[in-house]
Design brief:
Elements (H helix, E strand, L loop, with lengths): L1 E8 L3 E8 L6 E9 L6 H12 L5 E9 L3 E2 L2 E4 L4 E4 H7 L5 E5 L4 H4 L8 E5 L9 E6 L3 E9 L2 E7 L11 H14 L12 H12 L8 H7 L11 H10 L3 H25 L4 E5 L1 H5 L1 H4 L2 H8 L5 H5 L3 E4 L4 H16 L1
Helix pairs in contact: 5-6, 5-8, 7-8, 8-11
Length: 341
């Protein structure tokens, strides 16, 4: 029995799964979640997973493991765990099959053409070029970006660090925010992800609500400046989002500012990559802020691209809402590797 091994490795937990090849989508057969820090490395984890879950007579034909961090050639380093990953060693543990290490955001590209209806939600209806480039961005702790191109009918993901390009304010309010952030964070330059991310939503809330006497979140907004949720303290972005949903006008203005900047970043990526094959918005906030992403606040800023407004307005734009899309993307890539091998 032919098997595909897929993995999604993070500093806290690791997901491993076995899939069976399928057309067009691979079919999941088994999945297990591991506490990453409880293992000395990924090789023994993979070995134990296969012992526990591989069907009798099954053999891995290809594997793809998505890792939270950069991949250099066939190696990756997981800083939080002190693990050095080598594709050759991992391949040996998985029946000597072709195995690829890939960044955990770039791997989402392989999932995009094969998503089911319950894994996504439309933001803008448009016409996709089946041979055109794909692009995805997603606000989480930072701002992930990746693109995909088709070569001789095969999809190839290309990682990106576009979230670290300079933030370009488009409104007076965004200009004031950018100056406050540079001063408060002690920055020589301001990247897009300082604004367009879950952390960025917290920064905006800190700026807007920290000086509003009597606001229920004033104390949390001020505390964020010393201890963002990424390293401790209150989850200010979640608190602000909940307050905005419950009708707090000040919190609503924070979320609207963030959505506008997010929309602008999405439109920039679409133009930069000429994403005629489609644009996707992923990350944890795609599920939490879906209504906002479908609103004019996000979409109008996304489309406002001067001479390229018509291009962006005609693209299909979709939210990737499946929290397990990384593992599914790894399985899709493993299936491509098996087909090519």
């Amino acid at each position: 029995m032919d098997l595909l091994l897929a993995g999604d490795l993070g500093g806290t937990k690791t997901l491993l799964a076995l899939y069976g090849p399928g057309q067009p989508r691979p079919m999941r057969l088994a999945e297990q979640t591991f506490v990453s820090g409880a293992w000395p490395g990924l090789v023994p984890m993979v070995q134990q997973f296969l012992v526990d879950h591989r069907p009798q007579g099954g053999r891995c034909r290809a594997a793809c493991l998505a890792v939270a961090g950069p991949v250099a050639g066939e190696r990756a380093h997981i800083t939080n765990l002190g693990w050095e990953l080598r594709a050759e060693e991992l391949s040996t543990a998985a029946d000597d099959c072709p195995l690829e290490l890939i960044n955990d955001f770039a791997v989402l590209v392989y999932a995009l053409p094969l998503l089911a209806a319950d894994q996504q939600a439309p933001l803008q209806i448009g016409t996709a070029d089946p041979a055109g480039p794909l692009a995805i961005l997603g606000a989480g702790t930072g701002l992930g970006m990746a693109r995909g191109i088709r070569r001789q009918g095969t999809l190839q993901a290309l990682p990106s660090e576009g979230g670290h390009r300079c933030f370009a304010p488009e409104t007076e309010e965004e200009w004031e925010l950018s100056q406050w952030l540079r001063h408060t964070l002690g920055l020589d330059r301001l990247s897009v992800e300082r604004v367009v991310s879950g952390t960025g939503l917290g920064h905006i809330a800190s700026w807007r609500l920290g000086e509003v006497d009597g606001h229920p979140l004033q104390a949390e907004a001020r505390a964020w400046r010393q201890a963002p949720a990424a390293v401790g303290g209150a989850d200010l972005p979640a608190l602000v989002s909940a307050a905005a949903t419950n009708g707090d006008p000040a919190a609503r203005s924070v979320v609207d500012l963030w959505l506008g900047a997010y929309g602008s970043a999405a439109g920039d990526l679409a133009v930069h990559e000429m994403a005629t094959g489609g644009l996707w918005v992923g990350g944890g906030t795609a599920r939490k802020q879906l209504q906002g992403l479908q609103s004019p606040r996000f979409l109008e800023r996304m489309r406002r691209k001067g001479r390229f407004t018509e291009l962006v307005a005609g693209l299909p734009v979709t939210a990737l809402t499946d929290p397990g899309a990384g593992l599914f993307g790894a399985a899709c890539r493993a299936q491509l590797l098996a087909e090519c091998g």
